[in-house]
UniProtKB/TrEMBL annotation:
Species, as recorded: Lentinula detonsa
Keywords: FAD, Flavoprotein, Signal
Family named by the database record: Belongs to the GMC oxidoreductase family.
Name of the featured protein: GMC oxidoreductase-domain-containing protein
KW Flavoprotein (keyword) present: yes
Signal peptide: 1-17
Example of a GO MF term: flavin adenine dinucleotide binding
Pfam families on file: GMC_oxred_N (PF00732)
Cofactor(s) needed by this chain: FAD
InterPro entries in UniProt: FAD/NAD-bd_sf, GMC_OxRdtase, GMC_OxRdtase_N
Ranges for domain Glucose-methanol-choline oxidoreductase N-terminal: 49-174
Length: 260
């Protein structure tokens, strides 16, 4: 795929702009690197996108798995805590709201009084923050459970269990701006492709299914550039992500397109 003329041209433009190629974005030596790269995808032996999610689904559906269970369409709202014999707060479970949804979910019905129930554990509670509303459990969940700035918690009638003033601070939004162009020429890597879910309508998808998943649909043709705008920071301030896609228009309003 790297021999594709337009992909090579993209990288040549990045290099000319002072953004050298990043060979492996996951390599430790590439941490905080400035440059351009193609994202690496995890694929299985059949050249199909694969991830930890697929492994979890397989385990969950296995009849020989008595241990791992998933609660879908469920929010974790609070960590249940008690004081151990040493006086240290110890988690013994979580409070959940079955049927609740994040505002970004398709089944979100607006604000409502949540019906909650408790799940208790024998050994430990592992907190894992997801993609959307990461602070909801890792931060707000701690504060609702009594961990945070004591004076701030008391303002909302929450009994402080552990005074940690840093909880809930230093959170930042990750803004995303999408710009859509209509190309003057077809992207040669995807010649004949219409990016549709039905093989009968998309020759490239039909070829992908009939020929061992060996075409551009196993790759995506994505290019990324990492740049930094702040002279006093070594962290990435800006990531530009480019990929060809089927885009019929915005959900609301009219699509304003520009040929390039």
């Amino acid at each position: 795929f790297c021999a594709d003329a337009q992909t090579v041209a993209f990288f040549a433009t990045l290099v000319a702009a002072g953004l050298p190629p990043i060979v492996d974005l996951n390599d430790l030596v590439s941490d905080r690197a400035i440059g351009g790269t193609m994202p690496s995808f995890t694929t299985d032996a059949d050249h199909t996108r694969s991830s930890v999610r697929d492994r979890l689904v397989n385990v969950n559906q296995s009849e020989s798995n008595p241990y791992l269970q998933f609660a879908l369409d469920t929010l974790a709202t609070r960590i249940l805590l008690c004081n151990s014999s040493s006086g240290t707060p110890t988690a013994y479970g979580v409070e959940i709201a079955p049927g609740a949804a994040l505002p970004v979910a398709s089944n979100f019905q607006g604000k409502a009084i949540l019906r909650t129930e408790n799940i208790t554990v024998r050994r430990e509670v592992i907190i894992f923050a997801g993609v959307f509303q990461s602070p909801q459990l890792a931060t707000n969940g701690l504060m609702l459970s009594g961990i945070g700035n004591s004076s701030h918690l008391q303002e909302f009638g929450i009994t402080p269990i552990l005074d940690l003033p840093g909880v809930g601070n230093n959170l930042q939004d990750h803004d995303e701006i999408s710009i859509i162009w209509r190309m003057k020429q077809n992207f040669s890597l995807l010649n004949g492709c219409v990016l549709q879910p039905d093989p009968a309508q998309d020759p490239c998808l039909e070829f992908w299914e009939d020929n061992g998943h060996l075409n551009a649909y196993s790759f995506g043709g994505t290019v990324e550039a990492f740049t930094s705008q702040s002279a006093d920071s070594s962290e990435h301030d800006l990531m530009t992500h480019w990929e060809p896609a089927y885009f019929p228009g915005f959900i609301r309003g009219d699509l304003v397109s520009h040929d390039i």
